[in-house]
Amino acid sequence: MKYQLQPIFAEFNSDGFVTNAGYALVYNTNTETGEFVSATYEYLAVGLGIPPHVCLDAPNDVGEEYAIVRKGDKWTYLADHRGKSIYSTKTGEELTMTIIGDIPDGFTLLKPTSEFDSWNGKKWVLDKEKQHQHYVAVATAQKKQLLSEATTQINYLQDAIDTDIATDEEKSLHAVWKKYRVLLNRIDVDAAPKIEWPEKPE
């Protein structure tokens, strides 16, 4: 008996149709993106052609930084940053790259080093004005909160004085709180963050 020790491979004509049935090593691609998916052996009957998402020529092996994509009748090798963090050069917002290809305009792989960084076209640099305005905003809010607290204390103590029921300690505290409020009002928030806040009365 004659044994067949090798598989029978399909043969194709110039139009890409099978003339002799058999197995073929085919390269499968994603029907939507064209990205290479897998290589498989498929049995093809006479008269069949190769589906649009399948081809017979092998792609080159590439590293993890590239994606293999079929375009027309050729393999292309595109940058692949999927899964990596990218950062908006306008806001510094972090997103995750989800598509094949180069980093979109307006984004970079470089991570800002602080919330006050600005993009100069090549790298992140500290925006001292943005940083200063942040400190000023924080100091302004703190000053407002402390002044409100001081005014509440002063009004309470003033009521005790106006009704002639204030103790000596309350009279003393009234003067201390008023002095404290004056010192607060003199605070220049533009000096933030180098501000020496007056000590709050106990």
Mean pLDDT: 95
What's the total count of β strands? 12
The residue ranges in which pLDDT falls below 50 over 5 or more consecutive positions are none
Order of helices and strands: EEEEEEEEEEEEHH
Ends distance: 108 Å
Q: In one word, what is the shape?
A: rod-shaped
**Largest pleated sheet:** 3 strands, antiparallel
Strand content: 25-35%
The class by helix and strand makeup works out as alpha+beta
Key structural traits:
2 helices, 26% helix, 3 domains, three-stranded antiparallel beta sheet, alpha+beta, 202 residues
Describe the structure.
By secondary structure, the protein is of the alpha+beta class. The chain has three domains: 11-79, no CATH class; 85-126, no CATH class; 128-191. The protein is 26% helix and 25% strand. The chain has two helices and twelve strands, in the order ββββββββββββαα. It has helices spanning 128-162, 168-185; strands at 11-12, 18-20, 22-29, 36-44, 54-55, 66-71, 74-79, 85-88, 94-96, 107-108, 117-119, 124-126. Strands 4-3-5 form a three-stranded antiparallel beta sheet, with no helix packed on it. The protein has a three-stranded antiparallel beta sheet with strand order 9-8-10, with no helix packed on it. A hairpin with a 4-residue loop joins β11 and β12 (124-126). α1 (128-162) runs antiparallel to α2. The longest helix has 35 residues, at 128-162. The model has no long low-confidence stretch (mean pLDDT 95).
